[in-house]
Amino acid sequence: MILRGNYIRDLLSGDARSDVTVHGWVKTRRDSKDVCFVQLNDGSCPADLQVVISPANFDADLLRRVTTGACIRVNGQLASSPAAGQALELQAMEVKVIGEADPATYPLQKKGHTMEFLRDIGHLRTRSNTFGSVFRVRTSLAQAIHSFFHEEGFLYVHTPIITASDCEGAGAMFGVSTLDMLNVPRVNEGAQRGQVDFGQDFFGKPAYLTVSGQLEAEIFALAFTNVYTFGPTFRAENSNTPRHLAEFWMIEPEMAFCDLQDDMFFAEKFLKAIIARVMDECASDLEFFNKRIDNSVLQTLENVVNSVFEHITYTEAIALLEKSGQTWEFPVSWGSDLQSEHERYLTEQVFKKPVIVVDYPREIKAFYMRANDDGKTVRAMDVLAPRIGEIIGGSQREERHDVLLNRITEQGLDPASYWWYLELRKYGSAPHAGFGLGFERLMLYLTGMKNIRDVIPFPRTPGTAEF
Ligand code: 4AD
Ligand code: MG
Predict the structure, then answer these.
(1) How confident is the model at residue 181 (pLDDT cuts 50, 70, 90)?
(2) pLDDT score at 335
C-alpha cells in the first residue's frame, strides 16, 4: 500500500531524492528521439509526475505496454527538472507494467471529452483531470463540514435511511418493500379491502427511503441541544434538471433554543467557514476549475466569504420580481413558489450575492414550519446563491402541539403516523430550528461545474442507475 509521504502530491512538494517508488495511471506519453516522457497520476493532486525514461535502458516490449491508461510502477531518482512546467521529475531506473490498457479501445483519451460522454464511462472518468479535482474537493468539503460541527460542539446523529414517515409531506418517496410485485397480497376485509396488505411486508407497514433526516434530528436536538445529520437522501420527483438528483447528500443541523434569526446567521457562518476551509485546502484544484470550467469561481467564492448575505422577506422578493420588467417562464404572484429563474434573478441581477428569503406562504411550505402570527406565512428561510438558486432550505419548527396538529390535518396528512413527532411537543417542547444544505448544490457552487450529475461519484436520476 501507498503510505503518506509517497503520494505524487507529497513527492512534488518535497525535495529531490533517490530511490523513489511511485504507482499510478499513465495520463499521456510523449516520445522524442532518445527519451520518453510519461505523465503519471495517482489521484493525489491535479499535477502529474513527469517520468523520464531512456528507451536504450529498457526492454522495447515493456515500453510498448506503457500506454495511456496503463497502471505502472516506477522506481527511480527524483531530480530537479530542466524543463519548464515542473520543478521535479522522476528519472526511471525500473518500470513495471501492473495493468495494461489497450490503446485501441481505452475510452479516455487526451483530447477533451464532453461531460455527457464522461458520464457514460463513470468507471473511468475518475481518472480525468476534471473528476480528479471534483472528488478531491468533495472529500475536503465533507471533512470541513464535520470539523465545523465538531468544533461547534454539535452531536453527529446517524438518522435512518429507511423510514415510515414523509418528512416533507410531498409524497416524493421511493418505496422499500420485499413484497412480490407480481403477486401482491391484498386486504380481504374491512374498509381497506382490496388494497395492498402492507401488514405482510417486511416492516409491517409501508416504508420508504428517507427524503430528509430532519424529523429524527429534532428528536435528538430536544435531548442534545445542537445536533446534525449528514447522509444520503432520496427523492422520487421526476425532475430531470441540472440541479436535481434522485439520490443526494444532505447536511441538516438542528438546534434547540434557536429561532429563525439565529438559524439564518448560523447558516451564513457555516457556509462561509466551510467554503474558506476548502479554498485553503484545495487551492490548486480550485485554480483548475477557475481556469478550465468557469473563470468566475474563485472570485465568487471570495465574494461569498467576504460578503454579508442579504435578508429579504418572500413578500419583498415577489415585489422585486413583479417590478423587474422581466418575462418569466413561471409567472410571479404572491403565493406561488419561487422558481430557479426567480432565485437567480434575485441573486445575480439584484443583489449579486447570496440572499436569504424568509417568511414564505404557509401553503407552499412543509407542515413542520412555525406559523407566523399573520396567519399567512411561516418561519421558513431559503438561502439562494448566484448560479445555483436554492442551496439551503430551513425553518424554525412548530413547537406548539395544537398548532402543529392542525397543520398536519390541514395538509391532509395522517396525524397517527406523526405520533412521536407530536409527542415531542407534549413532553419538554422547546423552540428549535434547523436547515438542510444540499451537498451537491454546494459542490456545484465550489467547482463551477454545470451539472449536478458531475459532482457526485455515481449519479442517480430518472432512468439512470448505472455503476
Ligand atoms: O428544501 P429541502 O427540501 O428541505 C428539507 O429537506 C428540510 N427537511 C431541511 C431541514 O430543514 N432540515 O431540501 C434541502 C436542500 C435544498 O435546499 C437543496 O439544496 C437540496 O436539499 N435538495 C436537492 N439537491 C439535489 N437534488 C435534489 N433533488 C434536491 N432536493 C433538495
Ligand atoms: Mg426547499
Answers:
(1) very high
(2) 97
Looking at the fold, whether 231 and 356 belong to one and the same domain comes out as: yes
**Contact by Cβ (8 Å): 352, 386:** yes
For 282-393, where are the alpha helices, taking DSSP H only? 283-292, 297-306, 314-322, 340-344
Do 22 and 166 share a domain, yes or no?
no
* pLDDT 10s digits, 275-299: 999 999 999 999 999 999 999 999 9
What is the average pLDDT across 102-115? 91
* 96 & 143 share domain: no
For the segment 83-110, the average pLDDT, to the nearest whole number, is 93
Domain residue limits at 154: 129-173+211-454
For residue 181, is it within any domain? Answer: no
Question: What is the side-by-side strand order in the sheet with 207-209?
Answer: 162-163, 207-209, 175-176
Q: Are residues 78 and 138 in the same domain?
A: no
Does residue 125's CB lie within 6 angstroms of at least one atom of ligand 1?
no
Whether 250 is in the pocket of ligand 1, judged by its Cβ within 6 Å, is yes
452 Rama class: left (phi>0) / alpha (psi -120 to 50) / beta: alpha
Residue nearest to atom 18 of ligand 1 (CA): 438
* 140 and 101 in a common domain: no
Q: What percent of the chain has pLDDT over 70?
A: 100
State yes or no: pLDDT of 110 exceeds 90. Answer: no
Asked whether residue 301 is assigned to any structural domain, the reply reads yes
Note the ligand closest to the C-alpha atom of 230: 1
Is ligand 1 within 6 A of the CB of residue 435? yes
- The CATH number given to whatever domain includes residue 102 is 2.40.50.140
Average pLDDT estimate for 376-382:
98
* Cell numbers 510498448: residue: 64
**What pLDDT, on a 0 to 100 scale, did the predictor assign at position 170?**
74
Are 87 and 138 within one domain? Answer: no
- Looking at residue 397, which CATH number applies to its domain? 3.30.930.10
Q: Do 145 and 35 have their domain in common?
A: no
Residue 268 sits in the same domain as residue 158: yes
Q: Is the CB of 132 under 6 A from ligand 1?
A: no
CA-to-CA distance for 262 and 244, rounded, in angstroms? 28
| pLDDT at res. 84 | 81
Which pLDDT does position 464 carry in this prediction?
Answer: 93
Pick the ligand that lies closest to the CA of residue 246: 1
Distance from Cα 89 to the centre of ligand 1, integer Å: 46
Residues 338-348 as b or e (16 or more Cβ within 10 Å = b): bbbebbbbbbb
